[in-house]
Structure formats: C-alpha cells, structure tokens
Design brief:
single chain, 234 residues, mainly alpha, 10 helices, 0% strand
C-alpha cells in the first residue's frame, strides 16, 4: 500500500487508526480464525455452564424428593413394619450420594447418617457422617457432619476418633453455631482420658474463642478450676 503524501510531497507518517487498519489488512485471516475460535470457546463455555445448572437443578429436585421421604418415614425408622421402606430409602440415599458431590451429596449422606443413628447403628452412622463431611466441601453441612460423626464415635467408645472429628468441625470455613460446644467436647473427652493438661488447654480455647457464650464458656471455667484443684491436691 502506497504511503500518503503530506503538503510538501514527503511521505506522511500514518496515524494510529491507519496503522491498525493496515495491521488488520495484513493479518485478517489469522485474526478472523482467532476470533472464530474464541467464539467457539465462548459458546462451549456457555453450553457447559447451562448443562451444569441443569444437572444441579435436577440433583436438588431429586434430593428434595428424598428429603420428603425421609421426613415422612422419620417417626418409623425403628418400626419393623416399615423396615423395608426404610432400607429402600437408605439404598436410594446411598446411591444418590455416591453419584453427587458438594451440597447434594453431603446432604444425602447426612440423611443416611440420620437413619443409621435413629436405628443406633453407630458404626454405619459414623461412616455416613464422615462421607457427608468429605462430600460437602465448603458447605455449612461440613462442620455439622463432623460434629455428628464425633457423636457417633462417642457412642462406640472411640474417644480418640471423636476428638479428631470435633476438632475437624472447628477447622472449616463455614459458620458453625455449635462450635463452642464442639470445643468444650474436646476438653471433656481429654478429661476422660486423664489428659488434664490437654483438657485445660481445650477449655481455655472455649473461653478465648467464645468469651461471651453463656453456657459453654461458663462450663469451661468451672472445669478449669476443678482440674487445677485436682492438680494441686495430687
């Protein structure tokens, strides 16, 4: 392309717009190919997000149906007459939970754990609650699941495991209203193992973490005093 001339007849330096136009003219084929590729990627991303939303909505809808069945059968979990129905629901929940992660999977495992707990099948309840915690990710369900796993472990006399589960419920990013109770439980279980120093440390964490709690902070202070008296008398 011949350069334009200025008033004196010398070559005129093209301006920015002309430079851009010249660049496009020289490279129009690769530019068009790149633009087309970006559009394909964009449309593919939109389609993928749409599919994800569709599958998520389907999962939530299916979960709501399972939850409704759970609520309907809840008064009869230990009734032999409804045993087949309860076991069928457990199979559905387990199958659903194995196919989904995040909130849907975590919620399904929690429901399964609730059934096992109602039947006092504590080992199965513990397994279900641990699975719920691992599936739920950053959901608010995670600390609840760890807490329930701890309670199930306690029912089996698995003190060390229960301490670990209670501690896990305190390390999640989700807000957990039972956190001071979980921290107190860590101290309580250390006491049962005669690990008084660890118990005092755990109780102090209750006081420092939730100083205005009217129940667990108060109980923690009383246990610290009792343990310190015990130590001084030994």
């Amino acid at each position: 392309m011949q350069k334009p001339k200025d008033k004196q007849g010398a070559d005129k330096e093209p301006n920015a717009g002309e430079k851009i136009n010249e660049f496009i003219q020289k490279n129009r084929k690769p530019i068009f190919i790149t633009a087309a590729s970006l559009l394909v990627i964009l449309f593919a991303a939109i389609a993928a997000l749409s599919l994800m939303d569709m599958f998520r909505n389907r999962a939530i809808a299916a979960l709501e149906e399972l939850n409704d069945s759970y609520e309907t059968l809840a008064p009869s979990f230990t009734d032999e007459y409804y045993e087949d129905d309860v076991n069928s629901l457990l199979d559905e929940l387990t199958d659903f939970a194995n196919k989904h992660s995040g909130y849907p999977g975590g919620r399904a495992w929690l429901l399964a754990g609730g059934i096992h707990a109602a039947k006092k099948d504590w080992a199965l309840a513990e397994t279900a609650y641990v699975s719920a915690a691992r599936a739920a990710g950053k959901s608010y369900l995670t600390p609840v699941a760890w807490f329930n796993a701890a309670a199930a472990a306690e029912e089996q006399g698995k003190t060390a495991e229960a301490i670990g589960y209670y501690s896990s419920s305190l390390t999640t990013a989700a807000v957990f209203s039972a956190a001071p109770r979980a921290q107190f439980s860590v101290g309580r279980l250390h006491e049962t193992l005669n690990e008084d120093e660890k118990a005092i440390e755990a109780y102090r964490a209750v006081i420092s973490g939730w100083p205005y709690d009217s129940v667990w902070a108060k109980l923690a202070r009383s246990r610290i005093i009792a343990l310190e008296i015990k130590t001084n008398n030994e």
